[in-house]
């Protein structure tokens, strides 16, 4: 089976705030007070080289009812990384800041899954036209 890679969106289903890491990564992250917590009010955009594996990781963190959308398939890793960086600039106003160092995260607030998907599709079209 060929691994599908590209840009995804994910949204937890629960109202209760949960940390963004699984237990292993949370232990490596150090101080639990500096780990971002999210709920159904938040969505994340990201890139993955294996959508199935990434979905399974989010199920481990948030449970079976997590929403996971494969928005765009991009097999070229360089193009995928470049487009993800482009999206970071586009979504900047929605991005949450890290509690540890203040940097912008890929987790967002005040934007719907539908709006984020629409923006990604529009930006991908423009991005491809400029290559």
Largest sheet: 5 strands, antiparallel
Strand content: 25-35%
Distinct helical segment count: 4
- Return Rg in Å: 15 Å
N- and C-termini, Cα separation? 29 Å
Sum up the overall morphology in one term: globular
Reading the helices and strands in chain order gives EEHEEHEHEEH
Q: How would you describe this protein?
A:
The structure is a single chain. This protein has 131 residues and is an alpha+beta fold. It has one domain. Strand 6 and strand 7 form a beta hairpin. The two termini are 29 Å apart.
Characteristics of this structure?
globular, 131 residues, alpha+beta, two-stranded antiparallel ribbon
In terms of topology, how is this protein built?
Layout: E1 6-11, E2 18-19, H1 23-29, E3 37-38, E4 42-48, H2 51-62, E5 67-73, H3 77-90, E6 95-97, E7 104-109, H4 113-129
Antiparallel strand pairs: 1-4, 1-5, 2-3, 4-7, 6-7
Task: Describe the structure concisely.
This protein has 131 residues and is α+β, with helices and mostly antiparallel strands. The chain has helices at residues 23-29, 51-62, 77-90, 113-129, and strands spanning 6-11, 18-19, 37-38, 42-48, 67-73, 95-97, 104-109. A hairpin with a 6-residue loop joins β6 and β7 (104-109).
């Amino acid at each position: 089976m060929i691994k599908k890679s590209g840009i995804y969106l994910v949204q937890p289903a629960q109202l209760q705030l949960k940390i963004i890491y699984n237990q292993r990564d949370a232990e490596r992250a150090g101080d639990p007070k500096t780990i971002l917590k999210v709920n159904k009010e938040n969505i994340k955009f990201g890139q993955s080289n294996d959508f199935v594996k990434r979905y399974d990781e989010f199920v481990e963190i948030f449970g079976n009812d997590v929403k996971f959308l494969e928005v765009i398939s991009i097999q070229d890793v360089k193009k995928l990384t470049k487009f993800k960086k482009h999206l970071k600039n586009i979504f900047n106003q929605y991005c949450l800041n890290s509690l540890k160092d203040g940097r912008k995260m890929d987790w967002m607030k005040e934007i719907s899954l539908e709006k984020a998907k629409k923006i990604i599709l529009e930006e991908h079209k423009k991005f491809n036209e400029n290559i």
